[in-house]
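Friendly challenge for the regulars: who can give me the structure tokens for this chain first? No prize, just bragging rights.
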Amino acid sequence: MQNNRFFLRNNVPQLLMFGTTTALAAGSHTLPAKTPAMPNIVVIIADDLATGELSCYGGKNISTPHIDRLAREGMIFTNNYASCAMSVPIRASLYTGLYPVRHGSYQNHKTSFHHIKSITHYLPEIGYRVGRTGKRHTQPRHVFTFEEVAGFETDCVYPAAPYTTAGVREFITRNSQPYCLFVCSTHPHVPWTEGNRDNIHPDQLVLPPIFVDNQPTRKLYRDFLAEIGVLDEQTGAIMQLLEETGQLDHTLVMFLGEQGPQFPFGKWTCWYYGQHSALIVRYPKMVKAGSTTDAIVQYEDVMPTLIELAGGKPVDGIDGKSYAGILSGKNREHREYAYGIHNNIPEGTAYPIRSIQDKRYKLIVNLTPDAPYFEKHMMNVKDREQVWASWIESAGANAYAQSIVNRFVRRPEKEFYDLAADPWELKNLAGDSQYAEKISAMEAELKKWMLQQGDTGAEIDR
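First reply, four minutes later:
Bragging rights claimed.
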């Protein structure tokens, strides 16, 4: 039975048209004089990364020296969250500054609205070339008008083509015009077939506590970690190229982890393992080396941040807001809440989820809690290369494994977690009366956000 209390009966087309019209009417950007104050920008994006596996984020299983270098020489964000733990929605948010319902890609592989604008429109208005190498995904073309730069694999396939920085070199040395380049790796997205596994021993791995611990899971996790190694090598190659061309210290380098990996409780969820994302920024002209911030930020904030740092005017009508003040040390806080959305079509049966969190607490609302959760790529038990089949087998002989499987498939209407005491969200406090007032307040804020977005809840996941 559907939870009608969360079905906000609004006129979605009207609200979305208001949002897109406002975005199109965004302030007239005047072209500033080209000065050395206009930084070059390189944004490196992972694909389905588990942020906690980066050694600069406390990972114990592998070393990621090149990404760690960025952290040593820049600022590391500990509270960056993907509003949607799927590639198409979150990349559209990254490029437009809009939350998923307002840019239109609120389901995976769904085309964004044709009326909106992206960073490929705003930065050229202030004198930038905007390019992208690697994974693409976002549509339509006239909204995301990147110059496509050769060199990195564009699809998640096996075997992946070897990457090369030759195209990137040509793009960043073409002329003196400032540039913004998105380097979009396909690692560590499935299939986990690349990278050096020699020094990664399955029996010695520290698995996330939300996992069923068995040998198939450990072996697949080893393969996943090896792909993170390839991502780290690619990051190092880009840094080396910037050094060789004398551009490194005049270039703002940003590293983003995207959403969590294709394991249960990661991608396609609103849990921490899916939404928490790496964000590291190196820019010695502004950012203090070795600094850390716990300010809450989201992917929608990236575009307005880059526009401000490039010297552009704020864009009216978007959801994101610049955190340039965090980077400079002027500000300590950015957002009170991070919001999350998941719609499961076309990745499985309909299963809409919404979430809200501050630094301490998180509320997840499953809008159709009577239905079982199913995701077709990850939960096909005939696919022996996925962990889910091994978890089902383990559950037949192990009560703890069965409880984990049950938790993933059968979810309550509300989940409430104390992130300080329970960062892996293992203990649901929704039924604890001492948190009733806090839950009510966060639920009201979540409904307010959905109303502002034109999000009618479960009915849009079909």
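The chain has two domains: 13-25+36-335, 340-460. The domain at 13-25+36-335 is CATH 3.40.720.10 (Alkaline Phosphatase, subunit A). Your move, everyone else.
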